[in-house]
Amino acid sequence: MPQILLQSELPGLPVRRGKVRDIYDLGDSLLLVSTDRISAFDWVLPTGIPYKGQILNRISAFWFSLFDEPNHLITTNVDEMGLPADVDLAPLRGRTAKVKKTQVVPIECVVRGYLAGSGWKEYRQSGRVCGIPLPQGLVESQELPEPIFTPATKAETGHDENISFEQMVAIVGRDTAEELRRRSIALFQRGAEYARERGIVIADTKLEWGRHDGELILIDEVLTPDSSRFWPVEQYDAGRAQMSFDKQFVRDWLEHVGWDKNSPPPELPDDIVAKTQAKYIEAFERLTGTRFRPE
Hints:
Blueprint (H helix, E strand, L loop, with lengths): L14 E3 L3 E5 L3 E6 L4 E2 L2 E2 L7 H15 L6 E3 L20 E5 L2 E2 L2 E8 L2 H10 L1 E2 L2 E2 L9 E7 L2 E2 L7 E2 L2 H8 L1 H23 L3 E13 L2 E5 L8 E5 L15 H9 L13 H19 L7
Antiparallel strand pairs: 1-2, 2-3, 3-7, 4-5, 6-7, 8-15, 9-12, 9-13, 9-15, 10-11, 13-14, 15-16, 15-17
Helix pairs in contact: 1-6, 3-4
C-alpha cells in the first residue's frame, strides 16, 4: 500500500484544518494541501485513501485551466511557491495549490442537474427541492428539465443548511446572489457537458466563490468527486440509486456495516480502500484523458 498523507506539517506557518484540506496562511496568499483524508456523515474517517489528495488537487487544476473563469489558483508547482527552505517539498508534490486570498462568500453555490440525495428525499415529501417546485412524477436520479440553483449556508462543522434564494439575497445582496446563480449554473452546464462526452454524468455540484480586488472569483475545489456526484454514463438508469465515482461508495459500506454515525467511525478494510482509490483514479482519467501517475 502506498504512503498515505493524513495530515501535513509545515512548522511555523499558521494552519487551519478542514475535513480534507490543511490550509496554511502565507500572508498575502494561502497554501491548500489536499490530504488523503476522507469524510462521511460529518466524520473524518481514520483510514485515508492513497493519492486521493493528489487526484482532487489535479482535477481542480484541470478545470481551472479548462474554464476561462477568473479563479484563485496561482500555481500547483511546489518549486514555485516560495516556501521556507526547511520545508520538505516531497509530501506536498501533486497535492498542493498556492492560491489568492479572498473575502469568501459565505454560501455554498449548489447546482443540481439530477434528482438525487437530499433533493430526491425532499421531492418525495413535497414535490419541491429547496422550495423550488418541480414537475410531478419524477423518479430517483432523473435528469431535471433544467439545472436548479439551491444555495446552502457554509457550516464549519456538521451539515450545510439549505436556504432559499431569497435568504441568500438577504445574506449577500441581490446583485451578488443573482450573479453567483447565473455563473454557477453556467459553469455546471459547461462542466457537465464536457464530462458526459468522457463518460461521466455530473449529477450535482457545489461551488465556492470569493471576492478578490472587488471581483467575484472561483475558489476552493471545482467539479471533483468530493464536491459533486459523478456517475458512469454507461451504467446510468433513472429510477434507482446510481453507481458512483465519488465517496458514496464509502458511505454505502458504512451503512452496510451498521455504524451508528454517533461514535468514532470504523477503519476501512483494505479492499474498500483499494476500490475507493480505483474510483477516484478512474474519474481522473476519464475527465482528463490522461493516465494518473502519482507525484
